[in-house]
Design a protein that fits this description.
The structure is a single chain. By secondary structure, this protein is of the alpha+beta class. The chain has 3 domains: 57 residues, Arc Repressor Mutant, subunit A (Orthogonal Bundle); 183 residues, Bira Bifunctional Protein, Domain 2 (BirA Bifunctional Protein, domain 2), CATH 3.30.930.10; 45 residues, SH3 type barrels (Roll). The chain has 9 helices and 15 strands. The strands form 3 sheets. A 7-stranded mixed sheet has the order 4-5-6-10-9-8-7. Helix 1 packs across helix 3 and helix 5 packs across helix 7.
């Protein structure tokens, strides 16, 4: 829900992103918000962003302000508010990474609403792929996120089939991959929503801030993601090795699951994933192959 307080914070961020620092008085003038009210909103923003205030001056720390990043080979579009950052990036050129501080109509798989509140990292990348490799992007994308979180943040992250990333069975990251044809290539639009410093409003979710006990500078995480996805073609060159790593990092295998699909519910033990991302579940009536594109929800039952 968009409130006056939220609109005020978005207005503050809009006026901070392009300056190194600004006086409280000038920021109050630019936003049209009284100084005492402005300071109250800034203090509240410090729960989700690295905003610094002192000596009557305000700044957005360059370690957290995405507008200060200049990734080589990419065009970065930093928006304060969008409808959906994934829908936005579809109209951008190749090798664009777009992110938004707040999404009004963020969406996940099957059009479900993704709540993109302040403090998270809501990004979308648009890049070209060879047609033969495109089908493996949905396997590579969550694997990249798991590798980044483990290596650089010490997070015990795992993949929940098909492409969520969880820690202690709580959702930390959502990934959505969409593709379109462009000349002789396939263009991938990859949406990634990471709970960083935000407080996710849904049950069974968590954030990096909660896991690490402090605010996380988002630019280092964003830089790592851009760097890895700039080299995603290397991962896609060996589908067998990619699938092997995907399965090694999956929290779903060898567990009892319940899958809600468009055709009904399936319950059993998840035992395998094939090269196309289909999950095999052992049920009392035999093995069932579950299509990720027709699966509405999957729950771990143990």
């Amino acid at each position: 829900m968009i409130t006056e307080a939220l609109l005020s914070k978005l207005l503050i961020l809009e006026n901070l992103r392009g300056v190194s620092e600004i006086t409280v008085r000038e920021l109050a003038w630019r936003t049209g918000i009284r100084e005492n009210v402005l300071i109250h909103h800034i203090v509240d923003l410090q729960r989700t962003h690295l905003i610094e205030i002192g000596n009557n001056r305000v700044s957005w720390n360059i370690a957290d302000n995405p507008s200060t990043l200049k990734p080589w080979g990419w065009r970065l579009e930093h928006k304060i508010v969008t409808g959906s950052v994934l829908d936005y990036v579809r109209g951008c050129g190749l090798w664009t990474v777009a992110l938004s501080e707040y999404q009004m109509y963020g969406r996940g798989r099957h059009g479900r609403r993704w709540i993109g509140n302040l403090g998270g990292l809501w990004i979308a990348l648009r890049l070209p792929l060879l047609p033969g490799n495109a089908s493996y992007v949905s396997i590579a994308a969550p694997l990249i996120i798991v590798e980044i979180l483990r290596r650089n943040y010490g997070i015990n992250a795992w993949i929940k089939w098909p492409n969520d990333v969880v820690c202690n069975d709580k959702k930390l990251v959502g990934v959505l991959v969409e593709a379109e044809a462009y000349q002789d290539k396939i263009v991938a639009n990859i949406g990634i929503g990471i709970n960083v410093n935000n407080s996710p409003p849904l049950p069974n979710t968590t954030s990096l801030k909660k896991l690490m006990g402090r605010l996380i500078p988002r630019n280092s995480l964003l830089s790592l993601i851009i760097g890895w996805f700039g080299r995603i073609h290397k991962l896609l060159e060996d589908p067998k090795e990619l699938l092997k790593k995907y399965m090694e990092n999956m929290a779903t295998l060898n567990r009892r699951v319940r899958a809600k699909t468009v055709a009904g519910e399936i319950e059993g033990i998840a035992i395998d994933v094939d090269e196309y991302g289909y999950l095999t579940v052992e049920t009392p009536s035999g093995k069932k192959l579950i299509d990720p594109d027709t699966t509405l929800e999957l729950r771990h039952l143990d």
